[in-house]
Amino acid sequence: MKNWLLIIFLSFAYIFNAAGADIVIKNKDTRRSIGKDIFVYVDKSRKLDIQDIVKRTDFIRSTKSVPNFGVEDYTIWIRFSVLNQSDEPDLTLQIDHPVLDNIELYSEQNSQIIVKKLGEAYPFNHRIYNDPSFIFQLNVPKSHEKVYYMRIESSDNIQLPIFIGKERNIIESTKSKYLISGLYLGIMLSMLLYNLFIYFTVRDKSYLYYVVYLIMVILTQASIQGFTFKYLWPGVSWLAIYSSFIFPPLVGITALQFERYFLKTKEWLPKTDRYASVFIVLYISSIVLSLFSQYALAFKLIEFTASTVSMYMFYMAIKISSKGYRPATFFLLSWSVFLIGIIIYTLKDFGVLPYNDLTYYTMPFGSALEVTLLSFALADKINTYRKEKEYSQAEALRISQENERLIREQNIELEQKVNERTLALQESNHTLEVTLNDLKEAQSQLVDSEKMASLGQLTAGIAHEINNPINFVTSNIKPLELDINDLNSVINQYEKLNIEEDLAPQIAKIEAFKKQIDINYVREEITSLLSGIGEGARRTAEIIRSLKNFSRLDENDTKPVDLNEGLDSTLILIKNNFPSYLKIEKDYGALPLVECLPGKINQVFMNLITNAVQAIKSKAQPNEEEFLRIHTWQEGELVKISIKDSGTGMSEEVKQKIFEPFFTTKDVGEGTGLGLSIVFRIIENHHGTIDVITNLNQGTEFIITLPINSK
């Protein structure tokens, strides 16, 4: 019975409209906006059904071309009647707002109630027309009139750009929308791929943050226009519904992070930069609210946060640009364009501006222009990198030329000295023949000279190593003094308190002074400076301890010694001679204390390691990573030390002569030829052995074997 009553109401409802049919379609009408021709009723209870609605006489005629109901938890009912005076019965109704959740169109056909349902609450393949907008077939025969009711519910902003027209005209109208949207998405994808390519080229994180921001912008705009639901998740209705509350906050968050990294806001505006975390929390809160179905509150929070963040980012760009930072000027220009688009689009949402193609596409257009301008800004950054690189190359060339000049002058001086020395050697040749036997007897004295020369070789390295931590300590003294003076100023003000007077203003004055000097920062800085001074002192003590351990060259008594410790001390003292591409590999075994002369053994270590480093440096084309490997282990009552390098190696002929006194492969003036002879004699005196494993151009390994107890 109810259905028959409903059919009667639908068949004769137009009687209640004194003007007859609300909408009259003629042949000239191709696609007509009917926003002002519909009647609206807002069901705040959300409980009325079609049987209740058709009985109501309090529908209100719409006064806007595009009715805007905002974001409310109401049900919107629309009533309109259509009189078809055209020659074609294939009329269609289009609602060009793809983010609506649920639309139900009621009509009477063949004495039956027909309900057609569309919206994001239903899978996309539920639609007859493969279009993001909502298109219904009306089927109004020629010269016939039909009454329609439409029920609309949505978690998003409810705007109704509603049109009636012939089917082919409605379909053709969507093509222009596809063209504009395709152009926009093409620009955005091009910028995304371009900046992603630049990121993999220069490895600057600014480009990575920008790419993530572009992805969020693309997803936001595509979801607003219904393309994500159509192409990405056509069967996931809940994601289509919530996308309007997920992607816009993510755009805001990624935009904030990009600006902070691109403009270095932590360096330029450290205090203002802290507020970014507050906005991120607000964005996340809006997403959470939407997940708990608080759509209206979530939408308002997103709109408020977006407006505030836009002004916040605009302010930071102005401040940093005024300080002369060039990228901020580009950012300011691009963000201004995007901000204008956001303002116009937001005013459209709130009904301040009319809904039309201009206001609808302003934000996508502004977004496309913004990303293009920001890409120019990032490209300008590459030019800055290029200029810095050219400057560094020019500076390196200048230094190289200066080094060449110094080397030429030194070579001239060395040639003069060599000539002088050659002449002196020729004059004293006969004297050398007479004193050859005396020279052999003085060999032990030369060994001691070699020992002193080895210590002298350490001077430059030790000076360099100890200078760094000392400078570290001295550079912290002045700022520490200033911070202590600030603390003393606070203490002095507390000491000057007059307890006989009102303490509140005096304390307030002191608190104001503490804020002025940022007392918390002063405390943190004092802690940091003291830590730095302590680190410098620790490093200095480590160098001195290593030098003390190494310098026991004059001790004539054997004592138990940790050989691993001696190796570490030697490495510390001569590491200034290591090239940057040299990798030190230490593989120390658990060694017992070895009875030996520690100073002599340390001299052995220094001579062998220095020779290894020299062999690596002398390679014509060193590898990207050369190595010096030190390995220690115990075999029974013996300990073994292996010192292996990746240097030039030696031929078999050279290997047979390396322990002979005065034999050397170095150039004249670079060595006496006594280093390995001394090493051999020291190891022999400790009742040990030294083995050599070497191949030309494949490196050398010296293996020292010492008894744990040499007595």
Number of domains: 4
In total, the number of strands is 20
Number of helices: 21
Beta-strand residue percentage: 15-25%
Report the C-alpha radius of gyration, rounded: 43 Å
Distance between the termini: 121 Å
Structural class: alpha+beta
- Give start-end ranges of low-pLDDT stretches: 4-19
Give the fraction of residues assigned to helices.
Answer: 55-70%
Mean pLDDT: 79
Q: Quick one: biggest sheet?
A: 7 strands, mixed
> What coarse outline follows from CA principal-axis ratios?
elongated
Question: What's this model, at a glance?
Answer:
The protein is of the alpha+beta class. It has 4 domains: 2-173, Immunoglobulin-like (Sandwich); 204-385; 446-550; 551-711, Histidine kinase-like ATPase, C-terminal domain (Heat Shock Protein 90, 2-Layer Sandwich), CATH 3.30.565. The protein has 21 helices and 20 strands.
Describe the structure in your own words.
The chain is of the alpha+beta class. The chain has 4 domains: 2-173, Immunoglobulin-like; 204-385; 446-550; 551-711, Heat Shock Protein 90, CATH 3.30.565. 57% of the residues lie in helices and 15% in strands. The chain has 21 helices and 20 strands. Strands 1, 3, 4, 6, 8, 9 and 11 form a 7-stranded mixed β-sheet that branches. Strands 15-17-18-20-19 form a 5-stranded mixed β-sheet, covered by helices on one side. Helix 3 (167-202) runs antiparallel to helix 4, helix 6 runs antiparallel to helix 9 (276-291) and helix 18 crosses helix 19. The longest helix is centred in the middle third of the chain and has 71 residues, at 357-427. The chain starts with a helix and ends with a strand.
